Amino acid sequence: MPEVLDAQSVERELSGLSGWARDGDTLTRTWQLKGFSGAVQVANVVAYVANRLNHHPDIRVHDYNQVTVTTTTHDSGGITANDVRLASSVNAALAVAE
Ligand SMILES: C[C@H](O)[C@H](O)[C@H]1CNC2=NC(N)=NC(=O)C2=N1
Protein backbone atom coordinates (compact mmCIF):
# COMPACT_ATOMS: atom_id res chain seq x y z
CA MET A 1 0.00 0.00 0.00
CA PRO A 2 1.58 3.35 -1.04
CA GLU A 3 2.59 5.81 1.68
CA VAL A 4 0.56 9.01 2.17
CA LEU A 5 2.78 11.96 1.18
CA ASP A 6 3.47 14.69 3.74
CA ALA A 7 2.48 18.28 2.97
CA GLN A 8 5.96 19.32 1.85
CA SER A 9 6.19 16.38 -0.56
CA VAL A 10 2.75 17.19 -2.02
CA GLU A 11 3.79 20.79 -2.62
CA ARG A 12 7.03 19.66 -4.23
CA GLU A 13 5.20 17.28 -6.54
CA LEU A 14 2.60 19.93 -7.44
CA SER A 15 5.37 22.19 -8.75
CA GLY A 16 5.72 19.71 -11.60
CA LEU A 17 1.99 19.17 -12.21
CA SER A 18 0.77 22.04 -14.36
CA GLY A 19 -2.84 23.02 -13.61
CA TRP A 20 -3.24 20.76 -10.55
CA ALA A 21 -3.85 21.86 -6.95
CA ARG A 22 -4.26 20.25 -3.55
CA ASP A 23 -7.78 20.17 -2.07
CA GLY A 24 -7.68 18.45 1.31
CA ASP A 25 -6.72 14.83 0.77
CA THR A 26 -7.04 15.11 -3.01
CA LEU A 27 -5.32 16.51 -6.08
CA THR A 28 -7.68 18.25 -8.47
CA ARG A 29 -7.67 19.96 -11.86
CA THR A 30 -10.42 21.52 -13.97
CA TRP A 31 -10.35 21.94 -17.75
CA GLN A 32 -12.64 24.30 -19.67
CA LEU A 33 -13.26 23.03 -23.22
CA LYS A 34 -15.02 24.53 -26.24
CA GLY A 35 -18.22 22.57 -25.59
CA PHE A 36 -19.90 19.53 -24.07
CA SER A 37 -18.48 16.99 -26.55
CA GLY A 38 -14.98 18.31 -25.92
CA ALA A 39 -15.53 17.86 -22.17
CA VAL A 40 -16.73 14.29 -22.69
CA GLN A 41 -13.72 13.54 -24.91
CA VAL A 42 -11.37 14.74 -22.15
CA ALA A 43 -13.27 12.66 -19.60
CA ASN A 44 -12.74 9.60 -21.79
CA VAL A 45 -9.00 10.24 -22.08
CA VAL A 46 -8.78 10.50 -18.29
CA ALA A 47 -10.78 7.30 -17.91
CA TYR A 48 -8.47 5.48 -20.33
CA VAL A 49 -5.35 6.62 -18.43
CA ALA A 50 -6.94 5.72 -15.09
CA ASN A 51 -7.77 2.21 -16.23
CA ARG A 52 -4.27 1.71 -17.61
CA LEU A 53 -2.81 2.81 -14.25
CA ASN A 54 -5.48 1.00 -12.21
CA HIS A 55 -5.93 4.23 -10.27
CA HIS A 56 -9.38 5.75 -10.53
CA PRO A 57 -10.23 9.41 -9.89
CA ASP A 58 -13.59 11.09 -9.71
CA ILE A 59 -14.35 12.57 -13.15
CA ARG A 60 -17.06 15.20 -13.27
CA VAL A 61 -18.37 16.69 -16.51
CA HIS A 62 -20.18 19.87 -15.48
CA ASP A 63 -21.33 23.34 -16.47
CA TYR A 64 -21.65 22.24 -20.12
CA ASN A 65 -17.97 22.51 -21.09
CA GLN A 66 -15.94 21.70 -17.99
CA VAL A 67 -14.27 18.57 -16.61
CA THR A 68 -13.01 18.33 -13.03
CA VAL A 69 -10.77 15.41 -12.06
CA THR A 70 -10.19 14.68 -8.37
CA THR A 71 -7.85 11.95 -7.19
CA THR A 72 -6.91 10.42 -3.86
CA THR A 73 -5.67 6.96 -2.91
CA HIS A 74 -8.55 5.22 -1.18
CA ASP A 75 -6.42 2.26 -0.02
CA SER A 76 -4.06 4.63 1.83
CA GLY A 77 -6.49 7.36 2.90
CA GLY A 78 -4.70 10.27 1.29
CA ILE A 79 -2.49 11.62 -1.51
CA THR A 80 0.21 9.16 -2.63
CA ALA A 81 2.66 8.72 -5.48
CA ASN A 82 -0.14 6.96 -7.38
CA ASP A 83 -2.14 10.20 -7.46
CA VAL A 84 0.93 12.12 -8.64
CA ARG A 85 1.49 9.53 -11.37
CA LEU A 86 -2.13 9.77 -12.50
CA ALA A 87 -2.01 13.58 -12.65
CA SER A 88 1.27 13.53 -14.56
CA SER A 89 0.02 10.87 -16.99
CA VAL A 90 -3.23 12.78 -17.60
CA ASN A 91 -1.28 15.96 -18.33
CA ALA A 92 0.93 14.07 -20.78
CA ALA A 93 -2.02 12.41 -22.52
CA LEU A 94 -3.92 15.69 -22.88
CA ALA A 95 -0.82 17.57 -24.05
CA VAL A 96 -0.98 15.41 -27.18
CA ALA A 97 -4.54 16.61 -27.71
CA GLU A 98 -3.66 20.31 -27.40
C1 LIG B 1 -7.70 -3.75 -6.19
C2 LIG B 1 -7.40 -2.46 -6.94
O1 LIG B 1 -6.09 -2.50 -7.45
C3 LIG B 1 -7.48 -1.29 -5.97
O2 LIG B 1 -8.75 -1.23 -5.41
C4 LIG B 1 -7.15 0.06 -6.65
C5 LIG B 1 -8.13 0.42 -7.75
N1 LIG B 1 -8.16 1.85 -8.04
C6 LIG B 1 -7.87 2.76 -7.08
N2 LIG B 1 -8.09 4.08 -7.28
C7 LIG B 1 -7.87 4.98 -6.31
N3 LIG B 1 -8.12 6.29 -6.54
N4 LIG B 1 -7.42 4.59 -5.11
C8 LIG B 1 -7.15 3.32 -4.79
O3 LIG B 1 -6.73 3.03 -3.67
C9 LIG B 1 -7.36 2.32 -5.82
N5 LIG B 1 -7.09 1.04 -5.61
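^ H2B complex. The pocket of H2B is lined by residues 54-56, 71, 73-75 (CB under 6 Å). The two ends are 34 Å apart (CA to CA).
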